[in-house]
Every structure is written in structure tokens, then in C-alpha cells.
# Entry
Amino acid sequence: MTPYILVVEDEDALATLVQYNLEKEGYEVAVSGDGQEALVMVDERQPDLVVLDWMLPSVSGLEVCRRLRQRTETRNLPIIMLTARVEESDRIRGLDTGADDYVVKPFSMTELTARIRAVLRRLRPGLAEDRVRCGDIVIDRVAHRVKRAGGEIHLGPTEFRLLDYLMQHPGRVFSREQLLDAVWGSDVYVEARTVDVHIGRLRKALNATDEGDPIRTVRSAGYSLDVDA
Ligand code: CA
# Structure
């Protein structure tokens, strides 16, 4: 199931950027530049999450948030507020706005998507866990597909499990033995060098798009998947 996200932001360029990036992540996205319109859109079709700008013409983001919280059917709708300044985020923290999280502008898309994922995982666990993203790599556990920078990556079953495991712990270095236990299982006898072979295949598949090598070899220690690769 594709999570449906409503982005409420009156700054066209930012709204377009957010929409583009969220769609690239596989979300279905609708955009509104107006609080009143956003409330109508929520009535028509309830999103799985709302990204809500604080500063909006006519009805403010804060007011939209309050109204959504007042209605029974949207009381638990996940909301992430966008705030323009640190002062606003301080106010948000102080006020009981009812938002589930907030992101301070300017923000990176990596930050926003991480927050969205975290909120969905917490509040809509059925939706979020099928897909994991790390840097420009997206793994879909249900469809058994991997994409890098939007392009399809074809992996064998072992490489898929290996990548899945590394993506659960980005930046962390694993020894060959740890990877053997995690990916092959501790009751299977496999030589440590087998890990090198599969890491090699995984690396080759991931690097087919010339995006740079996301797998770091740590001499005499093991391997890690680098977050910002
Ligand atoms: Ca705004």
C-alpha cells in the first residue's frame, strides 16, 4: 500500500521540491498552498500523513492542526509541522499544537523524509516498514525490489538480504562473521570468504549506476554501508 501524503505549503518552489522528493521515495503526494483548501482535501480523502507549514495565508498551519485534532476522524492523523525559524519551533515545543513532529526550515530532504518515516513507523506501522531508504538506495521488502537514485537494481536473494541487513544499520561496521550470522544464519557453515564474494556482487550491482560506492571496506574489520553515499 502506498502511503498518501498531503503537503500544505504556500511556497510553490518548496512545495514542488518536497512533492518531487516524496514521490521519488514512492509516496503518493498531493499539494495545497492554502489551509482552508487543505482541510477540504483532508475531508475528501484522508491522507496517511500531513506535512503542514506553520506560515500559511488565511488559515495558519497551527489553526489547521488544531482543527484536525478537534475532529474525531482526524484526531490521530499524523502531522509534521514545518517551521521557518528557531523561535517558531520553540513556540511549537511550548504550545501543545498536537503535531507529531516538526522540522525547522531550511531542512534537507533527507531530514524531512527521515522524520516522515519515523512518524509513519510509529503511528502507521503497517505502512512504513515495507520500505527502507539509506542515502539514494531504497529497498522494498514486499516487492523484493531495490532502487538506487531511481534506477532499478537487480540482486540475487543473498545480496538482497545482505543489503537489507546493512541498511538497517547504516554506518556501522560488521565483521564477516557478524554478517554470516545475520544473513546466512549461525547454523549454516559458510566460509568467511563467501561474504567477500557476495559483498563484491552487491557492490557491483549497486555501482552499476555510477553513483559512487556506498559500501566501505574497513581493513581487517569488515564492511559498512555509508549513510550519505
Ligand atoms: Ca509558508
Q: What stands out?
A: The longest helix spans residues 109-123. The first strand starts at residue 4 and ends at 8.
